Amino acid sequence: MTDTPASPGSTYAAAGVDIEAGDRAVELMKTWVAKASRPEVLGGIGGFAGLFDASALKRYERPLLATSTDGVGTKVAIAQRMDKHDTIGRDLVGMVVDDLVVCGAEPLFMTDYIATGKVVPERIAAVVKGIAEGCVLAGCALVGGETAEHPGLLAPDEYDVAGAGTGVVEADGLLGADRVRDGDVVIAMAASGLHSNGYSLVRHVFLAQAGWELDRDVPEFGRTLGEELLEPTRIYSLDCLDLARRTEVHAFSHVTGGGLAANLARVLPAHLDARLDRATWALPAVFSLVGEVGKVALPELEKTLNMGVGMVAVVAADAADAALAVLAERGVPAWVLGGITAGTGQAVLEGAYAG
């Protein structure tokens, strides 16, 4: 009997998973994660779990923990095509922490999850850099995360990101629909751009229908299409917390998927409406162009995109001027968008946009 030479055994690396690349990615991201900390964080990255000293909550009479999780959707496809990965993390943080702050919660910490077809250490570190920078802007800590290599499921240059955050609010400071009153004033806070919603529609209009390239100069934007589409999400958490401390805020609404009216309706009681006046602001160019280039009807635009409003505050009527002053002081463009009246729990956009 002739012996058959043994074939080399299968390995994890041969299957497409590079553990050494993952370790190098962790080393590269450590500097950025260290910047996104708080005094309550114990230890550093590399452990099996992030640690947060909960004794900090003893100053609360009745602390309520709030939690949120989200991703950034198909905006990651733009980052991948442009090979620019250091801002998508800020989008992730914005999507998570600004959901937390809607109820009045202070974001405490976040964790992230990155799935990729192939770990390229520099690319993963760039994504985490953006997440860390977003956490600094939000006043929360990045206490850990996970990078998973999924060869065969994702292409080598593909990745997706998700995150989860935890915050805390004093029970008697909880904001929401039960505080909203007839006669309250609705204040809009400007978005920095598309934020992280509606990119399937936007990509279909500009890239598939119109055939535009991401490096196309668009005069209405004053920059390239890709630069406009990758504009990071504005993070409002510290602005909202300061506003709630200094004025009488009854509710916030984070304008994400579903648009302005649908998201505002989520914080209205069943017996009240929000009447919103389109004439109080001019549409930023990116929203107008999506409609014009794609022949997208206004109702479709308004239920898909934020239309230039990223966060809404519902405040007592006599607090409106003070609220606008606080936001101006913090560098957040804001204006009176409308008011609260008797109704059936709906937010209604009326009139035509300015300009």
Automatic annotation (TrEMBL):
Residues covered by the PurM-like C-terminal domain: 181-347
Domain PurM-like N-terminal, chain residue ranges per copy: 60-169
Enzyme type, top EC level: ligase
Chain segments annotated as coiled-coil in the UniProt record: none
Subcellular location: Cytoplasm
Pathways involved: Purine metabolism; IMP biosynthesis via de novo pathway; 5-amino-1-(5-phospho-D-ribosyl)imidazole from N(2)-formyl-N(1)-(5-phospho-D-ribosyl)glycinamide: step 2/2
InterPro entries: PurM-like_C_dom (IPR010918), PurM-like_C_sf (IPR036676), PurM-like_N (IPR016188), PurM-like_N_sf (IPR036921), PurM_cligase (IPR004733)
CDD domains, alphabetized: PurM (cd02196)
EC number(s) given by UniProt: 6.3.3.1
Pfam families for the chain: AIRS, AIRS_C
Family membership noted in the UniProt record: Belongs to the AIR synthase family.
PANTHER family: TRIFUNCTIONAL PURINE BIOSYNTHETIC PROTEIN ADENOSINE-3, TRIFUNCTIONAL PURINE BIOSYNTHETIC PROTEIN ADENOSINE-3-RELATED
Record-given protein name: Phosphoribosylformylglycinamidine cyclo-ligase
